[in-house]
Design brief:
Blueprint (H helix, E strand, L loop, with lengths): L5 E3 L9 E9 L4 E8 L5 E8 L5 H20 L5 E4 L3 H8 L8 E3 L6 H12 L16 E9 L5 E10 L4 E10 L6 H19 L10 E5 L2 H11 L9 H14 L4 E5 L7 H18 L4 H15 L6
Parallel strand pairs: 2-5, 5-6, 7-10, 10-11
Antiparallel strand pairs: 1-4, 2-3, 3-4, 7-8, 8-9
Helix pairs in contact: 4-6, 5-6, 7-8
């Protein structure tokens, strides 16, 4: 489960000062990392890799950071010095504790150009996900409610989801943020919310098999459901970007034979699952846009989670 890092890069120019973007993410079943090396000619070389899941989220993140930093050291060994751009506060703190012994690696005080950061994130999104669907014939039917929140002029999407059983009892809730390549790209945000909710379900709960339960994914995005249903029927969709189509295909590939059905619900019209997912998505987006610290953001999420862990109507 630890594939060799993928490298998409131009030849390095030894001795030249180099900017490197470092990004880490933790899936429910693995940790992934990516670095983007900015060359003198303006191109970006990207390396990605995956680490085995550890005993906890934080331990997996630590292993991912160590793997990413090892890749940075390989770059630094060929360069005069490396200026490292790390946006995540916790990852930045971890890196700061390691670079004292590496004199030619410095933490940047500024943020990398959005297009470069997006390129690294997109390369990581394209990595194969090592998640095994754990079928369980005794599993209950479940309902997932998902939603995304994105400002019209923004490129940060907040994602939220609720997993409940068929009787409406909440089993788990989740939220995160993601970058989109175009301002206000809500379709990509809605697809990402669906994908992350299904990954959470697969890794955390017994998954039904055909004939013994179903998974219903509720979304208020007609466009997202139309795209998934069109691809699922073997037809090619129109009015969607190549990246949106790739993301939808990836969702369908990860579902595999799991009995999933998609259902549209009208947003902000009293559907409790949809309303709860919306609150989670909005909270995640605003916390990131306003620079809320991880500690405060986690406390706010837990407070909202405690409010939501009550019966949700399917």
């Amino acid at each position: 489960m630890s594939p060799a890092p993928e490298t998409i890069t131009a030849p390095a120019s030894a001795g030249a000062p180099t900017d490197v973007i470092l990004h880490v993410r933790v899936l429910d079943e693995a940790g992934q990392w990516g670095i983007g090396v900015l060359e003198d000619d303006g191109s970006i070389g990207i390396r990605t890799g995956e680490v085995e899941p550890q005993t906890s989220f934080s331990a997996t993140r630590t292993e991912s950071v160590l793997a990413a930093f090892a890749a940075v050291l390989e770059v630094a060994a060929e360069r005069q010095y490396v200026v490292l751009d790390v946006s995540n506060i916790l990852v930045r703190k971890a890196i700061a504790g390691m670079i004292d012994s590496v004199p030619n690696v410095l933490l940047s005080e500024t943020t990398a150009i959005c297009a470069y950061r997006t390129a690294v994130v997109k390369a990581m999104e394209a990595m194969p996900v090592s998640i095994e669907v754990r079928h369980n014939p005794d599993a209950r039917s479940m309902v997932i409610s998902t939603d995304a929140s994105i400002a019209t002029t923004g490129q940060v999407a907040g994602l939220g989801w609720i997993v409940a059983d068929e009787d409406g009892a909440v089993l788990s809730v989740g939220q995160r943020t993601a970058d989109v390549s175009r301002c206000g790209d809500i379709l990509t945000g809605e697809l990402l919310a669906i994908r992350w909710s299904l990954q959470s379900l697969i890794s955390r709960h017994p998954v039904p098999v055909q004939g013994q339960g179903t998974v219903t994914v509720q979304s208020d995005s007609r466009a997202a459901l139309r795209l998934l249903n069109t691809l699922g029927a073997g037809r090619y969709p129109s009015a969607c970007t190549t990246d949106q189509i790739k993301l939808a295909k990836r969702i369908l590939d990860e579902i595999g034979t799991m009995p999933v059905q998609f259902r549209w619900v009208k947003g902000h019209q009293g559907n409790e699952g949809n309303e709860a997912a919306d609150r989670l998505a909005v909270l995640a987006r605003r916390n990131r846009e306003f620079g809320v610290t991880t500690e405060v953001g986690t406390r706010m999420f837990r407070d909202l989670r405690d409010q939501l862990v009550a019966p949700v109507a399917a």
